[in-house]
């Protein structure tokens, strides 16, 4: 079953740099990877905070291969475990997974390999790890380390809390002396402290990597014409390779979005928690293997995506926190090549999120934290200054005033004094009885004699027609920004009526100046004519030939194409044009196992296009 037992049978190498190059094909560690690896090799435990795509997996995979014994990786999703095991086997590592969906014959073979010491890395779900039978088998093994991936699932403050993760606190007691490395891409300070307490890591160091992902161009836009805005974004962000993800706020929306994307000619599918397990597995499998596939998904698709060449992520609804948004857009550009993220939102999103927090059964302290997270998310969406800087501040970092890789920095918005406009709109809401949504309020302000205006005699109001000087889109923007700043609420439980709050009073009295951002109807996704470099050299004959070979090879093996070689590796091969195995071995991502498997074919393709 295990593709190569080389590392398990040869005896563990002890030089992590040599393992990094020989197995994974990298010339050197990045950031704090070397520090973390050496700490674990010396028997130390710790917590790693590192962005998606920052190389967290190497922080436990390398020391597991260098230390004597078995490395055990706790992972929350079956699909993620299977993908990572398949990728490790491509690199010649003796790896396997134990989870509830395994065929019994396969599970028996994994247990047999485990008993005879033929594995170096075992991926396991928290539920399976905590079974007495699993723990008994592990007690019979020499253990190199425990790695707890997606460690924010441990914390009740985390954005993907998993109650079964709390039981992992027992690892420190049951396996004393075995290093424990918890890893996550997103955790605020409260979550960090909860993780440390739950896993017995209070005295262990916290390794923080930089959270900036400058290769992801981020943009945000009010939701005016959802389908048109998404069409424009996908057209600008797609370059003929890679995949995209559309995050939706409801299950029904994932299905309808996938449907109209298919009607537009895209290879689109949906994913949400209400689907049958087999349907979810099939959708994940197809997403991992398709060339230009689009997944319309709820946040149930937030973890377990190991594909490095996701080129873009779009949100059609406002995420509930910067942590959630950061992790979800972080699924793009994990290969380090340029990627894009678009956030669309509306006043109803903000109001609905606020109402859900207030109506939840959570404790007051939890509600306060959730309100703070939502307010931070709203500030990012409505930002008039660098969005990336605001996002990084949520993780305790401070970026430059102009990152050059967000829509605000690329095309700074104009601010205008919207005090009078805000007063007019709030007055119209009050004079119409707080019973109407934004569409009717705009009709009143614009002086339109609609059936509803006539029915309620709203043409007799002092506010009728006082807003003829501003277009509909501007008035909708005024309403949305007043909701964002808390001066207006939306009665989401009824029909979306606008309702002034106590914060509206100083605006109406002229005691508070209101600066508003001038909205643009375009999503401004940094189109190619703005100078954004292409993610991959599409159209290059050698690159396309390498992709064609990779597609055929992945199909032959029944694996996702990126497990053969990533786009980043193909780009490097295209640029270097290696003449022999020695030159090919210097390409990032070409380890010994892949060199033995694929050198002949790759060098042939390169020679044909020299």
Task: Walk me through this protein's architecture.
- The protein has 28 helices and 17 strands.
- The chain has 610 residues and is of the alpha/beta class.
- Helix 15 packs parallel to helix 22.
- 47% of the residues are buried.
- Helix content is 44%, strand content 13%.
- A 7-stranded parallel β-sheet has the order 3-4-2-5-6-1-7, with helices on both faces. It has a 6-stranded parallel β-sheet with strand order 8-13-12-9-11-10, with helices on both faces. Strands 14-17 form a two-stranded antiparallel ribbon.
- It has 4 domains: 203 residues, 3-Layer(aba) Sandwich (Rossmann fold), CATH 3.40.50.300; 195 residues, Rossmann fold (3-Layer(aba) Sandwich), CATH 3.40.50; 103 residues, Orthogonal Bundle (Arc Repressor Mutant, subunit A); 68 residues, DNA polymerase, domain 1, CATH 1.10.150.80.
- It starts with 5 loop residues before the first helix and ends with a helix.
* Oligomer status: single chain
What would the CATH topology of the largest domain be? Rossmann fold
Overall body shape: globular
Average pLDDT taken over every residue? 88
Distance from first to last alpha carbon: 39 Å
Roughly what fraction of the amino acids lie in strands? Answer: 5-15%
Radius of gyration: 27 Å
Number of domain modules: 4
From the coordinates shown, what is the CATH architecture of the largest domain?
Answer: 3-Layer(aba) Sandwich
Tell me roughly what share of residues is in helical segments.
40-55%
Give the name of the CATH superfamily of the largest domain.
P-loop containing nucleotide triphosphate hydrolases
The strand order across the widest sheet is: 3-4-2-5-6-1-7
The DSSP helix count reads 28
- Which residues sit in consecutive blocks of at least 5 with pLDDT less than 50? 1-10, 521-535
Overall SS class: alpha/beta
CATH class category name of the largest domain: Alpha Beta
What characterizes the major β-sheet?
7 strands, parallel
Total strands: 17
């Amino acid at each position: 079953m295990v593709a190569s037992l080389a590392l398990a049978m040869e005896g563990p190498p002890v030089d992590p740099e040599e393992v990094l190059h020989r197995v994974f094909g990298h010339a050197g560690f990045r950031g704090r990877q070397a520090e973390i690896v050496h700490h674990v090799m010396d028997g130390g435990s710790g917590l790693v905070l590192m962005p998606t795509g920052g190389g967290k997996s190497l922080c436990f995979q390398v020391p597991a291969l260098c230390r004597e014994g078995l490395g055990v990786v706790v992972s929350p999703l079956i699909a993620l475990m299977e993908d990572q095991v398949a990728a490790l086997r491509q690199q010649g590592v003796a790896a396997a997974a134990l989870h509830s969906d395994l065929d019994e014959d396969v599970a028996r073979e994994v247990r047999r390999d485990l008993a005879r010491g033929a594995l170096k890395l075992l991926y396991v779900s928290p539920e399976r790890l905590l079974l007495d039978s699993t723990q008994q088998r592990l007690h019979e093994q020499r253990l190199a380390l425990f790695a707890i991936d997606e460690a924010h699932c441990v914390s009740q403050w985390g954005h993907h809390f998993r109650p079964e993760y709390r039981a992992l606190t027992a690892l420190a007691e049951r396996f004393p002396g075995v290093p424990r490395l918890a890893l996550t891409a997103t955790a605020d300070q409260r979550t960090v402290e909860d993780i440390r307490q739950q896993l017995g890591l209070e005295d262990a160091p916290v390794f923080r990597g930089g959270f900036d992902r400058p290769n992801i161009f981020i943009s945000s836009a009010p939701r005016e014409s959802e389908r048109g805005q998404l069409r424009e974004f996908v057209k600008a962000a797609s370059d003929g390779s890679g995949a995209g993800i559309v995050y939706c706020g409801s299950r029904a929306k994932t299905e309808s979005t996938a449907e109209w994307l298919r009607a537009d000619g895209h290879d689109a599918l949906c994913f949400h928690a209400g689907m049958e397990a087999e349907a979810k597995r099939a959708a994940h499998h197809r997403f991992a293997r398709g060339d230009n596939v689009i997944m319309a998904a709820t946040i149930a698709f937030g973890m377990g995506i190991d594909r490095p060449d996701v080129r873009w992520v779009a949100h059609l609804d406002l995420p509930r926190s910067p942590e959630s948004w950061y992790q979800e857009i972080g699924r793009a550009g994990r290969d380090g090549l340029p990627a894009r993220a678009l956030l669309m939102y509306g006043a109803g999103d903000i109001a609905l999120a606020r109402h859900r927090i207030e109506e939840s059964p959570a404790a007051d302290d939890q509600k306060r934290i959730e309100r703070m997270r939502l307010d931070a998310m709203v500030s990012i969406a409505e930002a008039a200054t660098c969005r990336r800087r605001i996002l990084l501040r949520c993780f305790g970092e401070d970026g430059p005033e102009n990152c050059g890789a967000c829509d605000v920095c690329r095309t700074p918005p104009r601010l205008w004094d919207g005090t009078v406009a805000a007063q007019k709109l709030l007055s119209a809401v009050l004079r119409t009885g707080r019973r109407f949504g934004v569409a009717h309020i705009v009709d009143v302000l614009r002086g339109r004699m609609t059936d509803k205006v006539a029915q309620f005699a709203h043409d007799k109001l002092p506010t009728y027609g006082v807003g003829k000087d501003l277009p509909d889109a501007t008035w909708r923007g005024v309403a949305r920004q007043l909701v964002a700043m808390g001066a207006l609420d939306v009665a989401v439980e009824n029909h979306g009526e606008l309702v002034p709050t106590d914060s509206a009073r100083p605006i109406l009295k002229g005691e508070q100046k209101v600066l508003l951002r001038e909205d643009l109807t375009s999503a401004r996704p940094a189109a190619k004519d703005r100078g954004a470099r292409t993610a991959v050299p599409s159209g290059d004959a050698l690159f396309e030939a390498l992709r064609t070979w990779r597609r055929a090879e992945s199909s032959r093996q029944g694996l996702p194409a990126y497990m053969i070689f990533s786009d980043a590796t193909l780009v490097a091969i295209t640029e270097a044009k290696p003449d022999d195995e020695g030159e090919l071995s210097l390409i990032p991502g070409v380890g010994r196992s892949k060199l033995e498997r694929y050198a002949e074919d790759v060098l042939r393709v390169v020679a044909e296009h020299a």
